[in-house]
Structures are given as structure tokens and as C-alpha cells.
Write a structure and sequence with these properties.
Helices cover 63% and strands 9% of the residues. By secondary structure, the protein is α/β, with parallel strands linked by helices. The protein folds into two domains: 337 residues, ABC transporter type 1, transmembrane domain (ABC transporter transmembrane region fold), CATH 1.20.1560.10; 219 residues, Rossmann fold. The strands form two sheets. The chain has a six-stranded mixed β-sheet with strand order 6-7-8-3-9-10, with helices on both faces. It has a four-stranded antiparallel β-sheet with strand order 2-1-4-5, covered by helices on one side. It is elongated. The protein starts with a helix and ends with a helix. InterPro entries: AAA+_ATPase, ABC1_TM_dom, ABC1_TM_sf, ABC_transporter-like_ATP-bd, ABC_transporter-like_CS, P-loop_NTPase, Type_1_exporter. Pfam families: ABC_membrane, ABC_tran. It is a multi-pass membrane protein.
């Protein structure tokens, strides 16, 4: 990816949707950066600018030709020129005018085409840069940034930057030439009449700019309110079963109505800004045109100018009216590009905290020994509040390590540290003596597979979901993995078998089926270390027992980490770690921990023969 797209500086990213007034320096640097990106497509830029220059010159010829035609007609009538000669002259001018207009249209089309081409090339590069950046940013970044904000950047902000070249730069060039050359021609022809003809320009330019900037502010507010509206709808659709189960349709309708009414009120405010200002600009134009007709008519009567000259002035005014109104759109395009570009580049300039070290080498697995060596960890932005403290354990190939403990004790965090979803803040994690921070991420994550607690599925076939980690896997390998996860017979019973398309996020499957599918996805990869992070919580006891048997066969030649709340999922482990408040407070086999009569024993009694006295004992132990 290009350096302009990805940037070189690192900036903090606090909020994407909240817009603050950027200083002139930052806004200018953002626009310069966008301009440099546009200039990476030089021949499209050259064609767009060249076409603009030719189109402007041709457009400025039209009033001259019209004025000349009127003068020739008047001369022919007044001078007694024969009808044939007058008609011939008018036909020549008409054909010339038609040719100039056609050429102007062709070059205007070329200008629009190449200007849009530049913008779309830049947008394509930025979308790829955004998506690639999002793929590489760490879990800690995604923990604090809403996914809707990232979608806004990848769509709306990229669109704002895309339009900069065609709507701002090219339009600025076109407007400058039209107004400057048109004003020069009119004032040099008749200074007084020229100034009157141009009298509407400052007012329209001012009102257009103010209107567009005010509309820009309200549009940003409307965009935020529409985002809220989208979130309400997305949340309702995602939780529709909960809504129906609790008969909360009326409450959800009220919530949606409030969000929708808020957006509607701001839309009405935009109409109140747009309509009066547009009417005022139109009135100023026609008022100036009326003055030109009155003053010009008197000059014609006095013999100071001809009718063709007045026609030329009126045509110039008509040509200038729309470009002058577009000054506001141009100012808005600059402001929008500055705002959108700032947010976009804030994302692209984010520092990637989890990355390969400069001297990173591929991971080499020999013995397959995993070691936590005095590991401590605190989440970024948590004020250094330790989630894990001084964690030490070792797991060799063929061993199963179980981790158990109360919610929030740090069990899943330990699982996320092994594939470097986060980096440890103290100590080290090693594989065969290699610090995982000093090996390449690609080889590390190929060696470590995590069946996560959240069973996320993609909207595609069951086969593609299972083979997600290796899309070119053979069918037999996919089927063996699904058999191990006790899912194969269920899949064969479906009308389309493995080609069955699951719904959004796997909504067409039960919770247990989704978890079994993610287990199959993990077991298909044959990693050196596999982590099951409470991945059987939604599976019934009988199915879980069969899966455990398959997992034990699967675990013979790899390290297996099992995190669970149900102890019957852990009893077979070679070592059980009881974690509480980020520390290992007990360790041993199932029998050894029962003999200690500590916290593990209290939890075991609670699950096997629950009673109030045991609950109290376990609560005290916690």
C-alpha cells in the first residue's frame, strides 16, 4: 500500500464520528495529502484539467458569438442587406455556435469523466488501505472503537475524500477562469455595465458559501442521528427474538420513533436553511439582470452600445449564475474533504501495536512446549490495573491444561495472549524456548488455534465455515473435523448437506450447533496448540462427552488448553489451574485438587451436589 494512503505519522484516535474544528494547519496538510494522492494518477489529472480549460474557453466564446449574431442581424436589417446575404451570415454564425456548444459539451463530459476517474482510483486505494489497516489493528483497538464508526470511515469518509478532486479542485479551476475572464471581458467592454452585471456575484458567493457551510454542519449532525437510527434498527434486528419473547415491540417502536423524529427535525432545519437562501440568491441575480436591462437599454437608446453588446452581457450573466452558486458547493467540498480526510487519516496513521518485530523469525516447532514465565498483563487504557499477575505454568506436547475460575478472573485473557491477540506487559510466553514476540505472527497463528467462546459464523455454506482457516482443504478432512465435533450426521440430514448456507451470524443454527461448527473449524487446522475457550457451554452433556473423547484423540500430539466453567469438561486434564483475580491460586490434577479441599473442591461440590451451605462456602472462598 502506498505511503500516501497509509501515512507515516501516528495519531491518537479518540472518536471517528465526533467532529472537531481542525486548525488551519492540520486542515491544509490534510488537503495537501489528498491532493498528492490525486497526483499519483497524472495522465487522468492532465486530461481532466486540460478538458476543463478548453471547456471554459469554449463556454466564454458563446456570449461573444451571440452578441455578434445579434449585431449582424441588426446591421443587415438597418443597412438594407439582401435577405440571402443576411440569412447566409446568420446560418454561418448559427453553425459556428452549434459547433462551439457541441465541443464545449464534449470537453465538459471529458472533464467530468476524467475527474471522476481520479476520485474513484483514490477511493479504491483508500478502501483497500482502510480494510487492510483494520485487519492488522490489534484487539485492544477494536475493544474501544465501535464497528459502526469504522464502517462510516470506510464508506462516507472515503466518499468525501473521493469527491475532492472533481468537486473542489477542478471546480475551483473552472470557477476561477469563468469569473475572472468573464469579468475582464465585461468590464473592458463597458465598465459601468460590467460592474452592474457582476453586482450579484459577491452576494451570491457569500450566501452560497454560508448556506453550504451551515448545511454541512447540519448534515454532520444528521449523519450522527441517522447512525443512531441505524444502530437502533440493527440492535432490534439482531435481538428480535428477545424483543418478541419479552413483548417489547411497543417499547422498541417508541425508541425507533424518537430516533427517527430527531433526524426528521434536523432535516426540516436543513430545508429552512436552504430554501430562503436559494430564493435570496435567485432574487439578487434577477435584480442585477433587471438593472442591466434598464441601464443597457438606455445606453442603446443613447447610441453608446449596440443590442448585441447587451445580449452578450445578459448571456455572460446567465453563464455565470450557476458557477457562482457553485462557489458554496466548492467551499463545502473543501470543508468536507478536510473533515473526512482527518478522520480517515487518523485511522490509517494508527500505530499497529501487535506486529512482527524487526528481527522476527518464523516459529520452529520441535518439542511443542508452551511456557508462561511470570506473565502479567493489563489492558491498554485500564490504568495499569493488572488482569493477570505472575502466571507460571508449562505444557508439553500431548498434555491438556485446564483453566477454571470465577467470571472475570482472567481465563480468556490467558487464551488471547498465546496467539498474540494482546502482548504481555510483564514476563514472557515461549514456544520451545522462542519468545512469541520475536517470531512472525503468520507462523505463530498458524501454530495456535483458538475455538472462541463467541461462536461467530459467516453467511456462507457450512463447508466454507468449517474450512475457513484452510479454504483449499479436501472434503475428507472437513468431514473428519465435523465428525470429531459431532456435527457430521446433522449436516448430512440437511437438504443441501455441507452446501447449506447458514444465516447471518449462523442464526439458522442453534447455539450448540454453532459451537460445534467452530470446534470443527478449529480441529480441521491441526495446530500445535489448540485452545478451547468455553467452547462447549451451549452443548448438551451427552454430545459434550463424545466431543471430549474426540478431543482427547486430537490432543495426543499437541498442547491442549481447555477453559470451562463445567468441571466435567476438565476432569481429564493433566493439570488444572484455578485462577482467581488474575492469579493461579490452586493447581494440580482433579484428584489432587479435591484432596486439597480448597476453592476447586468448593466449586466441585457446588456443581455435583449443590446446597446453600456449599454456595456460601464457595462464595467465601471467592
Amino acid at each position: 500500500m502506498s505511503s500516501e494512503a497509509t501515512g507515516s505519522a501516528t495519531k491518537p484516535l479518540n472518536s471517528f464520528t465526533h467532529v472537531e474544528a481542525a486548525g488551519w494547519g492540520r486542515g491544509l496538510s490534510t488537503l495537501l495529502r489528498i491532493t498528492r494522492m490525486n497526483l499519483r494518477h497524472p495522465w487522468q489529472v492532465a486530461f481532466a484539467i486540460g478538458s476543463t480549460l478548453v471547456a471554459v474557453i469554449l463556454q466564454l466564446l458563446i456570449p461573444q458569438l451571440l452578441g455578434r449574431a445579434v449585431d449582424q442581424s441588426q446591421t443587415a436589417i438597418g443597412g438594407g442587406v439582401t435577405g440571402a446575404a443576411a440569412e447566409q451570415a446568420l446560418w454561418s454564425l448559427a453553425l459556428l455556435l452549434l459547433a462551439v456548444s457541441a465541443l464545449r459539451g464534449l470537453f465538459t463530459m471529458a472533464q467530468n469523466y476524467f475527474a471522476e476517474a481520479v476520485g474513484h482510483h483514490v477511493a479504491y486505494e483508500l478502501r483497500l488501505a482502510c480494510y487492510e489497516k483494520i485487519q492488522r489493528l490489534s484487539f485492544s483497538f477494536h475493544d474501544r472503537v465501535h464497528s459502526g464508526d469504522l464502517i462510516t470511515i470506510g464508506m462516507l469518509d472515503v466518499e468525501g475524500v473521493r469527491m475532492f478532486f472533481s468537486t473542489a479542485l477542478v471546480r475551483a479551476l473552472m470557477l476561477t477562469m469563468l469569473i475572472a475572464i468573464g469579468a475582464y471581458v465585461m468590464i473592458s467592454t463597458d465598465p459601468a455595465l460590467g460592474l452592474v452585471a457582476l453586482s450579484f456575484v459577491p452576494f451570491v458567493a457569500w450566501r452560497s458559501s454560508v448556506t453550504q457551510l451551515r448545511l454541512r454542519v447540519t448534515w454532520l449532525g444528521l449523519q450522527e442521528r441517522l447512525s443512531v437510527l441505524s444502530r437502533v434498527m440493527e440492535e432490534n434486528l439482531g435481538g428480535t427474538r428477545v424483543v418478541r419473547a419479552f413483548a417489547a415491540q411497543a417499547y422498541e417502536m417508541l425508541k425507533f420513533d424518537r430516533a427517527s423524529k430527531s433526524a426528521l427535525d434536523l432535516a426540516h432545519d436543513r430545508v429552512d436553511i436552504y430554501v430562503p437562501n436559494t430564493s435570496a440568491m435567485t432574487l439578487s441575480f434577477f435584480f442585477a439582470m433587471g438593472l442591466v436591462l434598464w441601464i443597457g437599454g438606455n445606453k442603446i437608446i443613447a447610441g453608446e452600445i449596440g443590442v448585441g453588446t447587451l445580449a452578450k452581457f445578459l448571456t455572460f450573466m446567465t453563464i455565470l449564475q450557476m458557477p457562482v452558486r457553485q462557489i458554496g458547493l466548492m467551499v463545502n467540498a473543501f470543508a468536507r474533504a478536510s473533515t473526512c480526510g482527518s478522520r480517515l487519516f487518523s485511522l490509517l496513521d494508527q500505530d499497529i501495536t501487535i506486529r512482527d518485530a524487526p528481527d522476527a523469525r518464523p516459529l520452529e516447532i520441535s518439542e511443542g512446549t508452551l511456557r508462561f514465565d511470570n506473565v502479567s498483563f493489563a489492558y491498554p487504557g485500564s490504568g495499569n490495573r493488572a488482569i493477570l499477575k505472575n502466571i507460571n505454568f508449562e505444557a508439553r506436547r500431548g498434555e491438556t491444561i485446564a483453566i477454571v475460575g470465577p467470571p472475570g478472573s482472567g481465563k480468556s485473557t490467558m487464551a488471547h495472549l498465546i496467539p498474540r491477540f494482546y502482548d504481555v506487559t510483564g514476563g514472557a510466553i515461549t514456544l520451545d524456548g522462542q519468545d512469541i514476540r520475536k517470531v512472525t505472527l503468520a507462523t505463530l497463528r498458524k501454530a495456535v488455534a483458538v475455538a472462541q467462546q463467541d461462536a461467530f459464523l459467516f453467511t456462507t455454506t457450512i463447508e466454507n465455515n468449517i474450512a475457513y482457516g484452510d479454504p483449499w482443504a479436501k472434503e475428507q478432512r472437513i468431514e473428519r473435523a465435523s465428525e470429531s465435533a459431532q456435527l457430521h450426521n446433522y449436516i448430512l440430514g440437511l437438504p443441501a448437506g455441507y452446501e447449506t448456507v447458514v444465516g447471518e451470524r449462523g442464526v439458522s443454527l442453534s447455539g450448540g450447533q454453532r459451537q460445534r461448527l467452530t470446534i470443527a473449524r478449529t480441529m480441521m487446522l491441526l495446530p500445535s496448540i489448540v485452545v478451547f475457550d468455553d467452547s462447549t457451554a451451549a452443548i448438551d452433556a451427552a454430545t459434550e462427552q463424545r466431543i471430549r473423547a474426540a478431543v482427547r484423540r486430537f490432543a495426543n500430539d499437541r498442547v491442549t488448553i481447555v477453559i470451562a466453567h463445567r468441571l466435567n469438561s476438565l476432569m481429564h486434564a493433566d493439570q488444572i489451574l484455578f485462577v482467581d483475580n488474575g492469579e493461579i491460586v490452586e493447581r494440580g490434577t482433579h484428584r489432587e485438587l479435591l484432596a486439597k479441599r480448597g476453592r476447586y473442591k468448593a466449586l466441585y461440590d457446588l456443581q455435583v451436589r449443590p446446597g446453600d451451605d456449599i454456595v456460601i462456602a464457595y462464595g467465601c472462598a471467592r
